[in-house]
């Protein structure tokens, strides 16, 4: 097992490298880079894309220069070429793309993610500041989804076709059909002082005076703030996990070894949790990384924005809008690394649930 873990860890290196190559290549074709952002601010233009469009017209009038030609763009605007040259050098765009990419990856090997273009703060510091918010949403949402969905799915499998199975299926499908952002807004309106009750805070992960509170009130204040965002992040996960658990248990219950166990006089609880549970939970555990990653990546931007939480999702979105490339690639690297680690943990949980699984034997 140790050799398998080592191989998986080594495989993360080319995987992360491939992710960075693809995204770095894509950014080379996206208009409105950091140089254009600075120029737009210097010229007092609020929309950099409008500025780029104007530069394209000016470039065509001056001989067909493309939008990406910064010298034509800036010269048409009357800005001094030395100013443009200094900007390019400041952001590293005086080097060819391949050299810039290799320099970036060399720094990443030393965990040097650079400094934000526009915030004058290191990317590592920004990630450390925002990571607790995203981890809180991802971990608590995934934990609650599993704690509720697994017992509910087992109950539905045991009582398959009953009234309980029917109305719970309807309830979780309705919950699945509600978009996460719409449910988040509904929670704000109902419980955060929107139109009805003001039970929970409107924004933030903790209160402003959190550092002055004792340990008990720090814990309660944290859960007080995180309740609504976690509920909004979890709602869509219930249906998939519950139905997956139910179907997995139904498949196992119909197998011959279950009939044999019952014929030996074992109690239904012993049959379910002593024999069926271990086999049925394999496919559920296999979905753990997908559930965590979907909450951590997909829903984090919307939920963090609605509840004014400064997490990695919101950080990456704001960096993409402002073309803050060091922050974009830094958060992308962290997201990719967490996703790969979760995949490895999923395999380890396979072995923990069913020791008969041996990845070493399977690969040889």
From TrEMBL:
Classify the protein's membrane topology as the record does: Multi-pass membrane protein
Its GO biological process annotations read: microcin transport; transmembrane transport
Q: Which PANTHER family match?
A: INNER MEMBRANE ABC TRANSPORTER, INNER MEMBRANE ABC TRANSPORTER PERMEASE PROTEIN YEJB
Q: Name one GO cellular component term.
A: plasma membrane
Looking at the UniProt entry, the stretches that span the membrane are 9-26, 133-154, 166-192, 222-245, 280-307, 327-353
Among InterPro entries, the record links this protein to: MetI-like (IPR000515), MetI-like_sf (IPR035906)
Q: Which family does it belong to?
A: Belongs to the binding-protein-dependent transport system permease family.
| Residue ranges occupied by any ABC transmembrane type-1 domain in the UniProt entry | 131-350
The main place the protein resides is membrane
Pfam families, sorted: BPD_transp_1
Q: Which organism is it from?
A: Allgaiera indica
Does Hydrolase show up as a keyword for this record?
no
Which cell locations does it reside in?
Cell inner membrane; Cell membrane
Keywords attached to this Swiss-Prot or TrEMBL record, sorted alphabetically, are: Cell inner membrane, Cell membrane, Membrane, Transmembrane, Transmembrane helix, Transport
Q: Does the keyword Signal apply?
A: no
Name recorded for this polypeptide: Microcin C ABC transporter permease YejB
């Amino acid at each position: 097992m140790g050799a398998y873990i080592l191989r998986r860890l080594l495989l993360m290196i080319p995987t992360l490298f491939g992710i960075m190559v693809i995204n770095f290549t894509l950014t080379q074709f996206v208009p409105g880079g950091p140089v254009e952002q600075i120029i737009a601010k210097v010229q007092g233009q609020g929309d950099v894309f409008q500025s780029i469009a104007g530069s394209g017209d000016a470039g065509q009038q001056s001989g067909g220069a493309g939008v990406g030609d910064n010298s034509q763009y800036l010269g048409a605007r009357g800005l001094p070429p030395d100013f443009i040259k200094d900007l390019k050098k400041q952001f590293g765009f005086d080097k060819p793309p391949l050299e810039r990419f290799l320099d970036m990856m060399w720094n990443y090997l030393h965990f040097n993610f650079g400094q934000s273009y526009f915030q004058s703060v290191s990317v590592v510091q920004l990630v450390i500041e925002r990571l607790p918010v995203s981890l809180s949403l991802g971990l608590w949402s995934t934990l609650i989804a599993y704690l509720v969905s697994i017992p509910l799915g087992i109950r539905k499998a045991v009582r398959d076709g009953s009234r309980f199975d029917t109305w719970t299926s309807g309830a979780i499908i309705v919950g699945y059909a509600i978009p996460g952002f719409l449910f988040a807004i509904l929670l704000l309106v109902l419980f955060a002082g929107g139109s009805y009750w003001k039970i929970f805070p409107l924004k933030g992960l903790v209160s402003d005076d959190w550092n002055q509170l004792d340990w008990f009130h720090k814990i309660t204040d944290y859960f007080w703030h995180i309740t609504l965002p976690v509920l909004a992040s979890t709602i869509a996960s219930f249906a998939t996990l519950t139905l997956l658990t139910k179907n997995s248990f139904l498949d196992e219950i119909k197998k011959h070894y279950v009939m044999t166990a019952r014929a030996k006089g074992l109690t239904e609880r012993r049959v379910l949790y002593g024999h069926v549970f271990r086999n049925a939970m394999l496919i559920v555990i296999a979905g753990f990384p997908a559930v965590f990653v979907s909450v951590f990546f997909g829903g984090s931007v919307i939920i963090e924005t609605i509840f004014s939480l400064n997490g990695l999702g919101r950080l990456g979105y704001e960096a993409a809008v402002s073309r803050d490339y060091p922050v974009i690639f830094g958060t992308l690297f962290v997201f990719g690394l967490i996703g790969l680690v979760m995949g490895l943990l999923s395999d380890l949980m396979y072995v923990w649930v069913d020791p008969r699984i041996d990845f070493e034997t399977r690969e040889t």
